[in-house]
Amino acid sequence: MKMQPFFASLIWLLIFGTTTAFSQHMRKSDEPRIAPLSWWVGMKNPNVQLMVFHKDLGTRTPKINHKGVELLKVHRVENPNYLFLDLKIDAKTKAGEFKIVFSEPEKEDIVMPYTLAARDAKQKKAQGVTNEDLIYLIMPDRFANGDPSNDVIQGARETNLHRDSLYYRHGGDIQGIIDHLDYLQDMGVTAVWLNPVLTNDMEKASYHGYAATEFYQVDPRLGTNELYRQLADELHKRDMKLIQDLVHNHVGAEHWTVKDKPYQDWLNNWDEYTNTTYKDQVLFDPYAAQSDKRKMTDGWFVPSMPDLNQRTEFMQNYITQSHIWWIEYAGVDGFRLDTYAYNDAEYMAKWAQDITAEYPSMTYFGETWVNGMTNQAVFTEGSTINQHFDTHLQAVTDFQTFHAINKTFTEPFGWTEGVNALYSTLANDYIYKDPTRNVVFLDNHDVSRFLSIVGEDINKYKSGLTWLLTTRGIPQLYYGAEIAMKNFADPDGKVREDFPGGWKGDQQNKFVSEGRNDTENSVFDHVKKLATYRKDNQVLQTGKLMQYVPEDGIYVYFRYDDQKTVMVIMNTNEGEKSIKTQRFSERIQDYKSGWDVVAQREMKINDQITVPGFTALALELR
């Protein structure tokens, strides 16, 4: 006897329910499902490919009876638990739920409901993150615990909660971030980038988010899908933006498609475990061996993160459609692309074109943790050094200026050392199509905090922050940078410590001035004044950059447009130094004074300007 469609649909809803229902528990890898989780009427691309997973589904015949939805093709693969369905959705199709019936003679029908939603014309989404923004990077598990009830989720592979260990979960969540959005807005932040928030149901070290086991579920220990959407809404109310961290290259070993692969080549397989070499040079080395190239792109990042084979169309659709889903569902404004260099280049170029075709204003930047300007620029769109292939990647996390600003304050001044490294790096910007789209930073979740790099010298630290908020590109702060959080990345991982005050019972609350010491308040005020000025003055967003060759450890550059000119003088010497202003007359022109953005005072521009040691002045010329 065949199961009646009504009861099949009811059982499906009771088990899996809405987005809310299954966001509150860990899904089992053998649960039936459809990806994408749902879709929308009126997308520019009317086609969508459903990956359907259900035991013994592969021999059945699917049928859809919903006006405007056409089943174009059924793909059967090696694993009988999967079917791939190509659908075309007419623009006039009515939103709502319909049923997909999978039939086979002498067997009960399998009935799965699927939802087509109406697009929300009023929803803010895909606004793009530009050089008008200031990004604040948060590791959700380590920022603030707004909902202790989700600290431990029963049924998860990892249920440890130990704030005294940096390798276990601490309980930070999305609600904790929402609770402190006023703090970020007051500081001058305009975009929030979270490390991945998708479910990481792994046995250990699941807190960082880079080993996803689900593509359509926020990790229940961080919150729900609805709460993530609420975060986007709350940001948009404040004219702020949400950046989602994407991992194309790999998933966690407990991902449901790894536990039961659709077909053998779903992953990049090896006869024995093979790790990536992490050698990006082989991707463009004219003398590279093909075996080295394959190890770089197809080798696994680590044993617990299987490498996805992005050369198959099914995998490409599975990944790309999930990213479109989050834009449309939650209102994501920008993407950060993890481990960009390890992906299949042709697929990533196609991915970029598909995303842009659906959302022309959407922006994305790739993590290219490499050494050397050309090594980095070769991954960006329209690069002058990549003549044979266009990646369509708009921008990168600018590790070259990161390396250079570190050298600026850790090396003595020399021909190529010290601040000359920073000057020389920016002088090579001609190899990018648009270097102002690159994301500049002092530190992040993978590297040592800048304060520790500069020996906890607050003057050096403030100089670095001044550069960050006045140079070209999109500046990114790592959580806690504004209160002078410190520590090195290796071997203890303390760069991922909790933000003090984010947990009930914390002895100190650094979210308020009363909880910060004098040094911390001084750094916070430094950041806030510069960030606020930057937000209010287009000259530091889109203004042109002119830099002068450093002399005697002094680096001078200008940001300018038709309305304003800002002069930055960076003294990288221990003692005070003076510069003769005549050298910079091309940009100083007839200006007689400068408003010190941080000190909030007027300075006369005479024949020379004296700058204290390890200090960077930002002066709006008047």
From TrEMBL:
Keywords: Glycosidase, Hydrolase. It is an enzyme of class 3 (hydrolase). Residues 137-534 form the Glycosyl hydrolase family 13 catalytic domain. SUPFAM superfamilies: (Trans)glycosidases, E set domains, Glycosyl hydrolase domain. Transmembrane segments: none annotated. Its EC number is 3.2.1.-. It comes from the Bacteria. GO terms for molecular function: hydrolase activity, acting on glycosyl bonds. InterPro entries: Cyc-maltodext_N, Cyclo-malto-dextrinase_C, GH, GH13_cat_dom, Glyco_hydro_b, Ig-like_fold, Ig_E-set. PANTHER family: ALPHA-AMYLASE FAMILY MEMBER, MALTODEXTRIN GLUCOSIDASE. This is Glycoside hydrolase family 13 protein.
